[in-house]
């Protein structure tokens, strides 16, 4: 299991390193004269590399630390397989099947391995919201099959502008539920709070990326730029409003997981603003932030899992002075917290900077919304770090400190390396997706 994950990471890095242009090996599967159903390009490969890296970390985190480990590993491998298939899909029907199939094992993971009494309710929240959004997605797919004769991206044609306007809205809502964007964001904090640590990591770092992948792979190529520009006020209102609302809500939370859950909503919606900014700077920034958020959100939920396993509480009021007794934990908490708020030298910083520059190029108001989101992230991240790490130790509640072990150190270092490396040397990864991002704009 771990060996296969390591081999997949190595394979993805090798192919990514040598791909100066789109690498399409689908003809080996689909035939030279038929349209591809899967596609290896830089966007797919980077998401696949992120997927296998995160699952490697997740498998290590549950090693000897969970009930019914074989069953959990089975469901996690199922999710990994379907995520990789989703990130390779260029056929809308194939993507839809994999996109929806992921709901089932994730529903089971939250329901069985969830940590609190509300886990069944959270499972149904997760399942219901995402399934309802997909109804509109399947309607769009049925239209493609009826009027284009195919659900494959290569053959989809939309003749009238009125149809494009309607179907754009269908697809936007279907993927907005996954991001999630207001008013569909209610399910995510509930799912995060009740899910086990492994479930929260996968939710934040990977499942939310299905929404951004859907925008990049299907919406931008299918719909003309003027349709996106027509809906720009709606995008700015919903995604921009989600950035501000989620950030303000994060500030008033007392559950550590809820703070990071609302932080994920804010950052993913900032990424959405960049993706639809109709500029290379904004679009590349949106893609960069979605990848950077995968590393950082995974690390933050794993850090929360560390202290929850030790003290069995996620209430911020129960903590204080953790840095005095757990210096290694505190060091990683500060590092990933700074990355989360977009501190310079992190890949998150470059993503957010590009998004804001791209937004200002098309809308001053949009740029200001992005800046406000970054400013608010500083408030809730610094507030959270200060309350947990510094001050007096709450001896009445927390009296059994022991710092990170070697296994913990391994997966936190594994997530810290790309966060810092891509932040200092962004050309390592950015030169891989440059051509494909340009192609999306054209």
In summary, what is this structure?
The protein has 21 helices and no strands.
Instruction: Write down the domain tally.
Output: 1
Oligomer: single chain
Continuous helix count: 21
Low-confidence stretches: 20-33
Question: Portion of residues in helices?
Answer: over 70%
- Total number of strands: 0
H and E string: HHHHHHHHHHHHHHHHHHHHH
Structural class by sheet pairing and helices: mainly alpha
What is the residue-averaged pLDDT?
A: 83
* Strand composition percent: under 5%
Radius of gyration in whole Å, from Cα? 21 Å
Alpha carbon gap, first and last residue: 40 Å
Principal-axes geometry comes out as: globular
Biggest sheet overview = none
SSE layout:
Elements: H1 2-18, H2 27-30, H3 42-62, H4 69-88, H5 92-101, H6 103-113, H7 119-148, H8 161-178, H9 187-194, H10 197-207, H11 209-222, H12 225-230, H13 232-251, H14 256-275, H15 280-311, H16 322-325, H17 327-340, H18 347-362, H19 364-389, H20 406-424, H21 427-441
Structure description:
With 442 residues, the protein is mainly alpha-helical. The protein has one domain. The chain is built from 21 helices and no strands. Helix 14 packs antiparallel against helix 19. The chain starts with a helix and ends with a helix. The relative contact order is 0.10.
């Amino acid at each position: 299991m771990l060996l296969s994950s390591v081999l997949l990471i190595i394979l993805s890095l090798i192919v990514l390193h040598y791909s100066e242009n789109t690498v399409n090996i689908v003809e080996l599967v689909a035939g030279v004269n038929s349209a591809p159903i899967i596609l290896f390009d830089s966007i797919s490969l980077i998401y696949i590399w992120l997927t296998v890296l995160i699952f490697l970390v997740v498998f290590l985190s549950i090693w000897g630390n969970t009930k019914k480990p074989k069953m959990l590993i089975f469901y996690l491998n199922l999710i990994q397989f379907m995520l990789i298939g989703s990130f390779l899909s260029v056929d809308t029907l194939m993507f839809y099947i994999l996109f929806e199939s992921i709901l089932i094992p994730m529903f089971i993971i939250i329901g069985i391995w969830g940590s609190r009494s509300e886990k069944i309710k959270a499972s149904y929240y997760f399942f219901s919201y995402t399934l309802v959004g997909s109804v509109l997605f399947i309607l769009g797919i049925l239209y493609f099959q009826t009027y284009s004769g195919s659900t494959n991206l290569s053959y989809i044609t939309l003749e009238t502008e009125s149809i494009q306007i309607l179907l754009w809205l269908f697809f936007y809502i279907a993927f907005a539920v996954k991001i999630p964007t207001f008013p569909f964001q209610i399910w995510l904090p509930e799912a995060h709070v009740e899910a086990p640590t492994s479930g929260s990591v996968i939710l934040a770092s990977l499942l939310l990326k299905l929404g951004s992948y859907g925008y990049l792979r299907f919406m931008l190529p299918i719909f003309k730029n003027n349709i996106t520009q027509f809906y720009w006020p709606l995008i700015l209102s919903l995604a921009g409003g989600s950035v501000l609302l989620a950030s303000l809500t994060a500030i008033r939370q007392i559950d550590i997981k809820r703070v990071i859950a609302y932080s994920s909503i804010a950052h993913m919606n900032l990424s959405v603003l960049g993706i639809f900014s109709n500029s290379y700077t904004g679009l590349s920034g949106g893609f960069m932030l979605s990848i950077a958020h995968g590393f950082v959100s995974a690390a933050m939920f794993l850090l929360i899992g560390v202290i929850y396993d030790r003290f069995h509480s996620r209430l911020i009021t129960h903590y204080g002075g953790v840095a005095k007794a757990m210096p290694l934990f505190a060091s990683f908490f500060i590092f990933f917290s700074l990355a989360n708020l977009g501190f310079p030298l992190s890949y998150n910083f470059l993503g957010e900077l590009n998004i804001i520059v791209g937004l200002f190029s098309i809308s001053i108001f949009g740029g200001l919304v992005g800046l406000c989101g970054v400013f608010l992230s500083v408030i809730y991240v610094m507030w959270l770090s200060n309350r947990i790490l510094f001050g007096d130790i709450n001896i009445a509640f927390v009296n059994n400190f022991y710092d990170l072990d070697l296994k913990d150190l391994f997966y936190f270092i594994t997530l810290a390396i790309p966060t810092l490396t891509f932040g200092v040397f962004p050309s390592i990864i950015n030169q891989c997706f440059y051509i494909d991002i340009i192609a999306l704009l054209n």
